[in-house]
Amino acid sequence: SFGVLNSSPHPFKLRFDPKEFLKLSFPFPLRRPKFFPIISSAILGASLVKKANGKIDGFVVEGSTAGGHNAPPRGELHLSESGEPIYSDRDRVDLEKLKKLDLPFWLAGSFGSHEKLKEARNSGAVGIQVGTAFAFCKESGLDERFKMAVIEDVLQNRVHVFTDPYASPTGFPFKVVQMKESLSDKSIAESRERRCDLGYLRQAYQRDDGTLGYRCPAEPVQDFIRKGGSIEKTEGRKCLCNALFANIGLGQIKKDGTPELPLITAGDDCQSLKQWISNDKKSYAARDVVETLLGDITSIHD
Questions:
Q1: Contact at 8 Å (CB) between 112 and 132?
Q2: What pLDDT sits at residue 7?
Q3: CA Rg value for the chain
Q4: From first to last of its 302 residues, what are the pLDDT tens digits of the chain?
């Protein structure tokens, strides 16, 4: 169990017991799953080790070039001319300090190559986390139409990944592949009627009467304001819940009969997919990625 809204005089609690939820009896004792927090600084790693109420089994160290959500830059947010967050040396993880925590760690963010795996191992990491390379392989659950659209852009050297500081309702920067007929198009995103009918990224808040409520910066603006949210937090927000389901071909159909549109994410090194594709071979398997990453396994420890 864990607390929610602990600033309240009477904190709300959410408790999950697999036995109660599944209503099954297990022939073996349930063991606590291992915990590998995703971090972006050695300071955060040290803080978790010190303050966590359970064991930390290791870390995934994710840099600002990784796909999906990124940690925001440290300090005040500054944007580039193109509107992306500006990261500096302050945002580089001090691996020497991280190694002193004496816990295994994996490096993520543009590490999808054999050379980067060797680099990670030589810097003290156990290994790497790779997402983009697998996101567009045959076995990926990504809708084939969107997969092929991105692969075609990679082959034509026109793929572009934009780090959107406002798209995600979570408030974290979010990597967005620029793709036609998707929510990466500002005009399309702004023309979409706001709704919150899935609610996976909703945030808990306490109503004036003391009860628990939920709100999302990507829901209808007036609804969010009525629930105590500020209009500033709604600017540029996109419904990731509906978009991510659309990404895998399970997008909802709206009342007017049109489908929810996708919002594809990938790491900054999306162009590196070229190591597995060509104009004559526009698909590849997860096995191809694994074999490329491992290469000559004995050389990884050089």
A1: yes
A2: 55
A3: 21
A4: 444 555 556 678 888 888 888 888 888 888 889 999 999 999 999 999 999 988 999 999 999 999 999 999 999 999 999 999 999 999 999 999 999 999 999 999 999 999 999 999 999 999 999 999 999 999 999 999 999 999 999 999 999 999 999 999 999 999 999 999 999 999 999 999 999 999 999 999 989 888 899 999 999 999 999 999 999 999 999 999 999 999 999 999 999 999 999 999 999 999 999 999 999 999 999 999 999 999 976 554 44
* Cα distance between the two ends of the chain: 44
CA max distance for the chain: 64
Question: In which order are the strands placed within the sheet that holds 59-62?
Answer: 38-39, 59-62, 105-108, 127-129
3-state secondary structure at position 106: strand
**Contact 144/280 with Cβ under 8 angstroms?**
no
Q: What is the token pair recorded at 295?
A: 């290469």
Q: Give phi and psi for 122, each to the nearest 5.
A: -70, -20
As to burial, measured by CB atoms within 10 angstroms (0-12 exposed, 13-18 middle, 19+ buried), residue 43 is: middle
Beta bridge partners, 59, equal: 105
Q: Which residues of 268-286 are buried (b: 16+ CB within 10 A; e: fewer)?
A: bbbbbbeebbeeeeeebee
CB distance 121 to 75 below 8 Å = no
- With contact defined as beta carbons under 8 Å apart, do 238 and 185 qualify? no
8 A C-beta contact, residue 59 and residue 126: no
The structure tokens 């594809």 sit at 264
- Closest by Cα among 218, 228, 182 to 197: 218
Are 13 and 1 within 8 A, CB to CB? yes
- d(CA 97, CA 114) in angstroms, rounded, equals 25
